[in-house]
Amino acid sequence: MKKIIIIAISSLLTVYNSLGQTRKMEEKFFPDATIDIPTPAFQKAEWKGFTKYKEMVRFVHQIAEGKEYVKIDGIGESQRGKEIIRVHINKPSSSEKIKVWLQGGLHGNEPASSEGVMFILYSLLKDPQYEYLLDKLDITVLPMANADGYNNMIRVSANGLDLNRDFIKLAAPETNHIRTAFSEFGPQVAIDFHEYNPYRAHFNHFGEKGITTYYDAFFLYSNNLNVNSTIREVTKDLLVKNAKEALIANDRNVSDYSSTKMKNGHIHFNQGGSSPRSTSTNYALSNCLSVLMEIRGVNLKRISFKRRVETTYLAGMSYLKTAYENGDQIRAAIAKADKSTISQEEEAVIKQDKKVIKTKYTCIDLATESKKEIEVVMTDGLQMKASKTRVRPYAYILMPTETVAVEKLKTLGVEVIQLNQQKTIDVEAYQVKSTHVSVAVWEKIYLRKTKAKTVKESKVIPKGSFIVYMDQSTSNVVVSALEPENDNSFFTFRVIDGDFKEGSELPVYRYIKKQKI
Predict the structure, then answer these.
(1) Which of 231, 265, 368, 446 maximizes the CB count within 10 A of its CB?
(2) Of 20-24, 169-173, 470-474, the least confident
(3) What residues have CB less than 8 Å from 184, skipping those under 6 apart?
(4) Helix/strand/coil (H, E, C) string of 151-203?
(5) d(CA 275, CA 20)
(6) Where is the active site (predicted)?
(7) pLDDT of 10 strictly over 70
(8) For the chain, percent helix, then strand, then coil, each to nearest 5?
(9) What is the distance in angstroms between the CA of the first residue and the CA of the last residue of the chain?
(10) Burial class for 255, CB neighbours closer than 10 Å (0-12, 13-18, 19+)
(11) In this structure, are residues 443 and 165 in contact, taking their beta carbons and an 8 Å threshold?
(12) What one-character-per-residue DSSP string does 275-330 give?
């Protein structure tokens, strides 16, 4: 036992030393919560780590025992054979319900996400004061989305893929299972809980000893211009606004999400998010109000862990209360977005640029352990502007060879039909202007960058070709996937691949005429 205690203390000191911070600083800015949290990680000694997969499975079955309206099953297996657990709570009620999707643990080294989601589950099923929420909410929860990674406290899945970079190319079994379950459930509200690293490498370049983040929680909601404008507005002005207020009322510091990157020898801050390969935008492209929560926590081990879990919990309960209290507004917003998408009112955005601004960034100076503001250059994803658009086609046509792409579109919730006879029709073809394959591997792929122009032609479309009509509410994701210049398209990720030389045609066509083929 003595040896174990020494190891635990040494481990904690190593964490503090490696971060270049003191416990005094943590207690000053991020004092730990004093509440009791009933989840497995808090029922054992700290040195035993966080909740293991088997403990999570046992916990969700225990709290659901005797409740017939709770169904626990698996949506598919992880790469190492673990069932990805889904908890579906749908209590009988005469009220019209909002469907809510909650997930945690997509990155395996972000323990407050799963622990917070389990705390929410416990409150919904065991705390009578929250039972009323079930009258108007139909809730699906994935407590540990990346079970393999979580069990070993690593970010990625068993084959090394970052699952939150995989929601367009769908190369990992886990993301296929998750996106299939998401599409089948069809939620109106979706929250994906994460933690972020408060000690980014670029922060060492500021001040005498570097800086760290000031914020307990970042809010990441999509500003991708292919996400319907009503979805973007209501997500920000209703869900995010209420959750920010709830956290501030509980003495949490909050902000919109930001990160850093090195560009031409200068450190640029980047605010917001717009990538369809990640959940917040990917889910929003299905006309769902979607937010990704980032809690200050990666690499902090058990430092301020109760605070981190409580922050996750407070945000999650705020989203549930907002959905409960604003069902009519949420339904109206999604109906408006669906109508707009189906009638193809908005353009297909091919390229979008972020405004670059100079602004103040609030942080903690590690030398003085005090709050300070620094002047930074910010690429502001909250101020997006379309730099290249095309008319949204009535349909995209894929050649019969593109079966892999078609299966991924179906997983993304898109209906695809197959042409049962050859037809000659007027289309827009993509003619390659240039193509370039990266020299470095990203997520196990050499990415392709493609520039193309569209040319009108009469085309013989062979029997067995695939038709994706855009008059469906889930079709916004199709623009991201099939317009070749998009940074997250099937062409970029080599889902659709070939010897694409200058002047050649791509195996996807745009059909403009508003008439079924």
Answers:
(1) 231
(2) 20-24
(3) none
(4) HCCCCCCCCCCCHHHCCCCCCCHHHHHHHHHHHHHCCCEEEEEEEECCCCHHH
(5) 32
(6) 294
(7) no
(8) 35, 30, 35
(9) 74
(10) middle
(11) yes
(12) -TTSHHHHHHTTT-EEEEEEEE-TT-TTTTHHHHHHHHHHHHHHHHHHHHHTHHHH
Helix (H, G, I), strand (E, B) or coil at 84: strand
Average pLDDT of the residues in 190-211: 93
Q: Is the dihedral of CA 385, 234, 170, 469 positive or negative?
A: negative
Contacts of 499 (CB under 8 A, 6+ apart): none
User: Do the bridges between strand 254-256 and strand 266-271 make them parallel or antiparallel, or are there none, so unpaired?
Assistant: unpaired
Residue among 115, 195, 294, 428 flagged as catalytic: 294
Pairing of strands 83-89, 137-142: antiparallel
Q: How many residues does the chain have?
A: 517
pLDDT of 347 above 70: yes
Cβ-in-10-Å burial (0-12, 13-18, 19+) of 209 comes to: middle
Sign of CA dihedral 191, 193, 194, 198: positive
Q: Confirm whether 174 is a catalytic residue.
A: no
Would strands 466-469 and 395-398 be described as parallel, antiparallel, or unpaired?
antiparallel
Ramachandran category for residue 66: left, alpha or beta (phi over 0 → left; psi -120 to 50 → alpha) = left
Contact 117, 193 (CB under 8 A): yes
